Amino acid sequence: MITVACILPDLRGGGAERVVVRLLNALDRTRFRPILILIEKSGDYLDDVSPDVEIIDLKRSRLLTAIPSLIAAIYRIRPDVILASHGYVSLPLAFLSPFLPRRTRLVAREANTPSRWTALQSPFRRLVLSLLYRHTFSRYDRIVALSGTVKSDIESFCRVPTGQIAVIHNPVDLESIERRAAEPSAVAPPEKVKRIIAVGRLHPQKQYPMLIEAFSLLSDIPAHLTIMGDGPEKEAILGLVLGKRLAARVHLAGFIKNPYAVMRHADLLVLPSAFEGFPNALIEAHACGIPAVVFHDIGGASEIIIEGVNGLLARQGSVEDLAAKIRQALATDWDREKIRDSAYGRFGLPYIASQWERLFESF
């Protein structure tokens, strides 16, 4: 029996949290013992954790103050594998690796391209994070990149040998999404218009101002945009919506635990991010049969989008091209079954979970 302990700050809404919960729930219990270590036991996804997944609550609000409790917990359970799935955990854990049990193997799940993620930080934080990535990240026994783009970035920016990096995409849980998509929607779908949605944290990485600008160029189309997510740019985005006189056509819905009930009513997902590792919202929208417009080089997009089948790719940084691709997508007669098949065939949870299981058993 292989004990796998995954460390997360908490289970507040986010792509990494959702993926880790799905993975731990899916592991074969005849071969794996899943444990979830939380810096703070809180968040919207606690109810989604399977009852047979052991949860260890360190009862701290920050990782720095939780380090003694974290090390003590690791020595108490002595896991065969530790999976760190959040940058704010994986980098400090790499630094602490000499103090952990020798037989325990360390695996980091890297969701973003590190070079672009660090570039968004303040100068001091950028320096510290760059040093940690370049001088401690290679201490991991294996690093899991969510796409080929992320893998290449880890090799060059973090100076990690290619043999230490595996590519495993995010999974899509067909049964869960279909069940939850049938639930009542938290957002009343607007009628007699094209329904555009965007899903993700209101953060500079997501480039929502660019989406608002592009949407303002489509005033001749009867369309409505719903943005699901919360974050530090909320006030700035709301100000832009009001400034563009789009209050009647754009709704900031905040964080919604069940976005699938909203997705199933949508006509199009738009993902205007500057970069991503492997965007969950994209494959989840496809699982609901929804096409997408995505910037071409955001990381993993070219591994998900099959142009003309499940979406369109726009030129990064071009508001005009983003607007043009949205217009084209809304005018296209999409085959929703082909869109669903494009997600399930390549990113189904059983298939992705089996890749993780083989990785854990390889040590």
Question: End-to-end distance, in Å?
Answer: 13 Å
CATH fold-level name of the largest domain:
Rossmann fold
Order of helices and strands: EHEEHEHEHHEHEHEHEHEHEHEHEHHH
Gyration radius, rounded: 20 Å
CATH superfamily of the largest domain: Glycogen Phosphorylase B
The major β-sheet equals: 7 strands, parallel
Q: Structural class of the helix and strand makeup?
A: alpha/beta
Q: Unreliable stretches, pLDDT < 50, 5 or more residues? A: none
Annotation field: number of helices:
15
Sheet-strand content, in percent, reads 15-25%
Q: What best-fitting shape do the alpha-carbon axes yield?
A: globular
Overall domain count: 2
What order do the strands of the largest sheet run in, or round the barrel if closed? 3-2-1-4-5-6-7
Helix content: 40-55%
Quote the average pLDDT: 91
Label the CATH architecture of the largest domain: 3-Layer(aba) Sandwich
Any idea of the CATH class of the largest domain?
Alpha Beta
The total strand number stands at 13
Textual characterization of the structure:
This protein is α/β, with parallel strands linked by helices and 363 residues long. It folds into 2 domains: 2-171 and 348-361, Glycogen Phosphorylase B (Rossmann fold); 177-346, 3-Layer(aba) Sandwich (Rossmann fold), CATH 3.40.50. Helices cover 41% and strands 18% of the residues. It contains 15 helices and 13 strands. It has helices at residues 15-26, 63-77, 87-96, 114-119, 123-136, 148-157, 174-181, 208-216, 234-243, 260-263, 280-287, 301-304, 319-331, 336-347, 349-361; strands at 2-8, 32-38, 54-57, 81-84, 105-110, 142-145, 165-167, 194-199, 223-228, 250-254, 268-271, 292-295, 311-314. The strands form 2 sheets. The protein has a 7-stranded parallel beta sheet, sandwiched between helices. The chain has a 6-stranded parallel beta sheet with strand order 10-9-8-11-12-13, sandwiched between helices. Strand 9, helix 9 and strand 10 form a beta-alpha-beta unit. Helix 8 (208-216) crosses helix 13 (319-331) and helix 11 (280-287) crosses helix 14 (336-347). The two termini are 13 Å apart. 45% of the residues are buried. The model has no long low-confidence stretch (mean pLDDT 91).
